[in-house]
Each structure stands twice: as structure tokens, then as C-alpha cells.
Predict the structure.
Amino acid sequence: MTSTTTSTSAPEPARRPARRSARDLPPWPVALLACIGVVLFALPLVGLVARAPWTGLWTHLSSRFVVDAAVLSVVSSIAAAAVAALVGVPLAWVLARVSFPGRSAIRALVTLPMVLPPVVGGAALLFALGRRGVVGGPLHDATGLLLPYSIWGVILANAFVATPLVILTVEGALRNLDRRYEHAAATLGASRLRVLWRVTLPMIGPALGVAVVVAWARALGEFGATVTFAGSLGGRTQTLPLAVFVALESNRDAAVAISLVLVALSLGLLISLRDRWWPSR
Amino acid sequence: MNTDAMSTTASGLEADIRLRRGEFELDVSLSVEAGETAALLGPNGAGKSTIVAAVAGLLPLNGGSVRLAGSVLDDPAAGVFVPPEGRRIGVVFQDQVLFRHLNALDNVAFGLTSRGMRRALARERAQDWLDAMDLGDLGHRRPRALSGGQRQRVALARALACEPDLLVADEPLGSLDVTARNRLRRNLAAHLSSGRNGGSASPAARRHGAGGVPRLLITHDPTDAFVLADHVHILENGRLTQSGTPDELRRAPATAYAADLSGINLVRGTARDGEITVADDDPTPSPTGRRPAVVLHAADTSMFGAVLATIHPRAIALHRERPSGSPRNVWRTTAEAVEPLGDITRVLLGSPLPLTADITPGAAHELLIRPGTTLWVSVKATEVDLAPDSRD
Amino acid sequence: MGGVCAATHDTDVAQRATWTRRCAALALLVMTPLAAGCAASEGDVDGSNRSGASVSGATLEGSLHVLVAASLLPVAEVLAGDFELLHPGVDVQIAGAGSSALREQVLAGAPADVFIPADPSHLQTVRHEVGISGEPVVVARNSLVLAVPAGNDAGVAALADLTRPELLIGLCAAEVPCGAHARAGLSRAGIEPVPDTDEPNVRALVTKLAAGELDAAVVYASDARTAAGIESLGWDAGSAPETTYEAAVLTRAPNTQAAEAFVDFLHSAAARDTFVAHGFGAP
């Protein structure tokens, strides 16, 4: 188990004989701490699996409120990931490519949701876009539009916490991309938009893919901002994490069952990512 | 600015480049006529790549102007700047810079579709170009599955496919190993010289008229410059220190750097198993009738046919007595001229093989070399570099 | 702020009492065992039995861990301060959270002396699995009320307005006590509410209501009394749903003496006044 987490010598396996040289093995303090790390992450999972109501699992998962929450979660998290990509990629491009005064302040601002407690983020959204919010108030008065208590509120709250992940990942990828590819495309007659679409984005494709999937996973697990901004109503705004939280109060088996689904979903996704996108070199 | 005079033909490049990048200042005027290949030769950091960027429109000028084919591309004083995508300049970048997410065919077709050609037609054209580069069946490969030489040919095809008004090649042979270098140099020469000498040009190059455009070759390798270019401009620290034909530069180098690289000896001949029979360039018959053929020995035994042997002037050792030991190439000659060039003393050697040798002033003094002094020459076989001769 | 504590036998950290309490609350929320690290205690040389409450004559000392329902947290902080004035040797640490979360902590072995959930049903599991010393004591009652944001812009007048779809209505989720009691009470009155959100706890509900993001909600009378920006409209349909807070001393309480004294204190007349002042009903 530990060897998978510590082996970093992938580039030269072809040259190496089958037997591992001593350099491949971690020094013992590294191995020990890595072990502790694995245990730290594996234990809660073990706890969850141990508590799982295996016999009644299907009954729990097929209950109305779980299905409703699952559908809402999938729809809203995908939408949030799309919003995160749509907003995050251009923002990352500007941050990576345009030099302007206050750029670091803007970068700090847009990555703030990563460090802000989600509940605070949700409250801030409420104060800004709620019915009595700075922007939401006039908007509601003029159009009757109300973001909280609707799936739009869920998507917005999810996107709020997920977008910084896209921005940081994509900005890093853009900074690492050799500008000469874009220069070459320009000398070949490609307009700036075509360069972005046909060269820049495809070339940072792997990073972009990781960014969107991680943003999606973050949105799927979002709790604090969602419940604070959008509330929690079965079938309308109650996502899987909210359902877990409420179910913990009354029906622990159901809560554990839902949690297992979330864990399985995320784990499967992250494992598939490892093979697909994360450079194995 | 005297560009109004239009000293060159309307289809050439006229560049008067003034650029500041931090501490570095670039001030270079050069012109390349249609059908001509100009080499910009200079050490690392001289500003070569900055010139590429300025000509291609990747860096706007601070002063001066760039004109190509009669139209102004950049003139800050007049407020004119044509962005790179609006210029018809084919650039072969250093390290190729092929799009790694596209296969070879789509790399070549990229410029065509960018300029509005239908995808299917662009692919057809791109295939023609790959065929011309002997890459016809490698179109489906991604760049990483191609060899260095193949990548370079794809890059050349990509730059030429758009039928540019100017071809700029930035260190086109820089990242290749010796064998690939030699093969590609021949290939490049064929494409660069197709206007002047249609015989060796590829069909696609002929059809698309690549030979008629001005060509700018950026390099730090004097061999590339002297072999491939009609005119050589020497760039040092942001300034052109000398311009002229390769022969002119070799005859009268103006700076130490120019002297150093212009002393490079280029010898044409025919190679066979590491023996190079030197061609007799001299049209005047020798007094004794047919001159004896000179044979050079090279360590590289892989080349056959017409070659260009390169011998660095510092690799030539001079002696008063016949040297003992291992050098494969030893002959007797006379010193024709002795020129002190600062740190070195340049000795021009006479028949049977007119070469330039650079020795230290101390050695020159010790050997008592004067014009007419009889000397023994020795050159190690490993110091004779061979390249395919593509001039004919 | 209380005096600086001197380190004694069980722990070695000297902390200000308030800080300690906050730290413990936080730690309990995150990871219960850590709370032990924040504990501090104080030996009081001065005789401490100055109160008129029914406290035994022995000198009380050490730290006391009290787990209270979230709705009790504000009043519990005040009462803990009062208790510490009476017993300077005791350092009361209050941790507040949802009752079921607290129950899980107790079952998982959290170092607690006193447990006061919002619904006595939570005590049953604890009694069976962990053990309770003596009988639980009712220390306060709370009733549910219809509440509106200050100003009542939507013109909500009665519980029946909870059925108006054009209003933004909030309730507690049915799974938590305030939600269960509210629904039971409304159901008795024949009212079918149409909530726009079922908040997972009453604090979240109060926050939204106070921010004006809801037109009406059913919350505890204590919240309606103490939270800023909220007005109570009472309960206009029969008897208001009620919940009782029962305090229990855990069998394995590390500081049984202080725990029992604290529960007795909560039952005292002085504590009752404090409860009432915070909107609670007397036991």
C-alpha cells in the first residue's frame, strides 16, 4: 500500500532490471509517515463501510428522498462545473496572460472561496444575492427573480466554491504552456480566438479536464454554502450532502448508505482520473 | 528612414528594427530580396530571436519599420502595426514548436484552415506538402512519434504551406544530431534554393513557388550560414557588425567574432569511405598541367558523394618540420599571408589546399612565419566535419 | 474575564475560562478527544460554599464538561458564568451542537459530565448504552412560535399564513426536534405548511429569518426572544408545541460532584430567572 504512494521513479522503469534497487525504497521515516497518512485517510472509510447497512442498502438508496437528492446533486454539480469552467477559464487566462495593476488582489479575491468557510461564503452570497441582498434585492424587485430556495441557488453556491479550483489549475497550466505554440499559430494566420480555441485549450486539455472534474467533485460534496444560500428542501434544493446531514439526525442507516454512494462515486472518479489525466511520469 | 527609395524589389523584406527589452537594445537594418536567402549569424544573446519576433509581429517595434512585399507591417511612427496573423510570414521555429495535439497532416493544414480554406481541401494540400518532404505516409503521426529530422520537415512544410511572402527559419538545424543535421541541411537547401536552382526543388515547392520569396535564416552555426545563404549578416549584441556574401566575410572579417567564424574552412569534395577527394575549384590550369588531387581523411566514414568538409582554423596545426605522430592529414605548403587579429594570428595557406589557420601570436613568432615560409600542415581526421554538399 | 488558572494534577494548561470554553466547544465540534487538551482547572483555597443553592458543603473543583442542545447555548454560557462565580474552583466548559450530534459524541466516549439535549428521547439511548446517574431533571421548557423578520413586511398574521405559497416559509427539517415539534403542532391545528426550505438546524433558520430572506418561520420562543431582527407572533392555533430540556449526569462523569452541583444549580430559582429572561419556560 505504501509503495504506491511513495514510488516516484516512473520515468526509467524500462532501463531498470525487474528487481528494485535500494534507491526505490523510501527511507524509513518517510515510509512511516506515509503509512500514517494512508491510515488517516483509510480509517474513516473503514468506519463508514463497517457501519453500512448492507442488507437494507437498496431500500435506503431507492427511497424517494435519496433519489430526489441524487438527481438534484448530479444535475446541479454538473451545471456548477460547467459554470466554473465557463467563468474560470477566461479568468485564469486573464490572470495568466494580462498584466494589470491589482492582479494579485484579483487573484486573491477569486480564490478566496477556497479558504473561506463555506458557510461564510453562503452567507455572503445571501447578503449579496438574497431577496434583501445588495444586488439580489433590486433584482428581485425588478424581475421577481429569486436565487435562494431554487436549483439556481444551489448551482450558484456550488459554482462559488468550485470555480477557484478551475482558476488555479488552469492558470498554472497556462503559465507552464510554452507561449511559442501560440506564437506559431498566430504566424500561421490564426486569429486570437482561434489560437485560444484550437491551440491553447487543447494543449492545456489534460489540466483543464482535471480542473473541471475536481470542480465537479467539489460541487458534488458541497454542503455549507449550499445550505446557507439555497436552503434545503427535498426535491428542490436538498442535495445528497444535505440529505446525509439531515438523515444523520433521524435515520443513520440511510445517511451511511448515501455517504457510501458519494464515496464510491468520488473514489471511482478520482481513480479513473489518475490513469487518464494525471501525468504518470 | 530612406525606405522611400525602395532600393530592393517590391517583393522583398525591408526591416529597420529598433527595440528595447529591458537593458537590451536592438538596432538592426537589413533587407532581403525576393529569391534571396539571408543568414543572420550571431552568438547566443545577440538578439537573433528578438529579430524573428519583430519581423513576425510577435513583438511590436519601438522604432523603425518592417516592410514586406511593398506593404508596411510595422511602423510605430506612422501608427501602423499588422498583427502576426495578418502577416504572410512563414516561421520555422527553433525546436519546431509543432502542435503536439495535432498529427503531422493537421499541423501542416493548420495555417490553411486558419486562413479560411475548407478542411478537406486544406488536408489535401497538406498531404502534397508531406509528400514533397518524403513524409507522405507519416501524416497520421503525432509530433512525438516523429524523429527530430521528420519534425523539422513537418515544421518547414507547415511554414511553406501557407505560401508566405517571407520564410523565416530560426535555428532550423539547432536541435538535431549530426546525421539528421546533414540530411536536413540538404533538404533545407533544396527548398531555400528552389527559386535559383529549380533542379533539386520538391514538386510542391516548385508548384507553390516557395523559391521566389525572400528567406531569412537565423543561426549561430557558420556552416549553416555559409552553406545556405547568399548574404550573411553578423549580429553581435543587438547590432549588425558586418554584412556581405560568405566570401566577402571570409576575406575581410570586421570583428573578432566575425573573424573567428569566418575563418571556417569549407572544402568541397567527393567522399568515399572517409576519404574526401577535394574538388578543383580553380578554373586556371596549374603551370604543370593537371594538378594532383588532394585527399583529406575524415573520421566520419558514413558519407558518400558530394560533401562539404568543414575544418575549424584552430584545428589546423602548423610545423617547421614534418610532424611525427598520428595525424592522418599531413602535407607541405607555404604561408601566403600572415595577419595578426588580436588574440590570434591568422595564416593563409597556399596550394595544394588553400586553408585558413589560426595560431597564437606566440606560436607564430616561434615558427618565424612570413609570407613564403614553407610549413608542414597537420589536421586530425576527427577535426574534418562532413556535410552533404547541396549546392549542385 | 476570570483569573488565570493555576495548573494542577490533571492537566497542565493555564487558560482563561472563556477561552477555554470556546476552545472546548470548537474542539468538540471537530474532534472530541482534543477537548481534553484544553481543559484547565483551579484549586480554590478560599471556601467556596457561598451560594444559597442546594450545593453540598464540599469544595468543588476541577473542570466540568457540559454538552447542551444548540438552542440552549446562549443561556448556558450565561449560566456557566454564574456557576463559576459561585464555585471559583470549577471551570465549566460548554459545548453546543445539534442534539443528535451530541448524543453521538457521548456514545463515542466524549469526556462529558452533563448532557442536556433538546428532546428527552435522546437521553434514552444514552441511558441504555452509557448510563445515567440518577434521574434526569427538567431544567427548562421551550415552546415554538411563529416568527417573522423585524418589520413583518409580508404582513404575516397567523400560522395559517404558512400555507400561502407566495410567501417564503422556512421550517426546521422534520428530522430535528424543532422541525418535528413544529410539524406536529401545525398538523394538530390542521395547517399544511408549504416551506421553501427545511433548514437542518434552528440556528440556520433563525439566520435566514433575521436576514429577511424568509417571510415567516417556526422557531423556538427562546430564539425569537434573543435573536436580533426577529419578532414573535406567538402560536395562535391551540396549545403551542413544547419541548423540555432534561439535564442528566453521566455515570462515567469524571467530575460527578461538580456535575450534580451544576444540575442542581440549573434547577435553582436564580437559574430559572435566567432561563425565563432568555425566553424559556420554567420547568
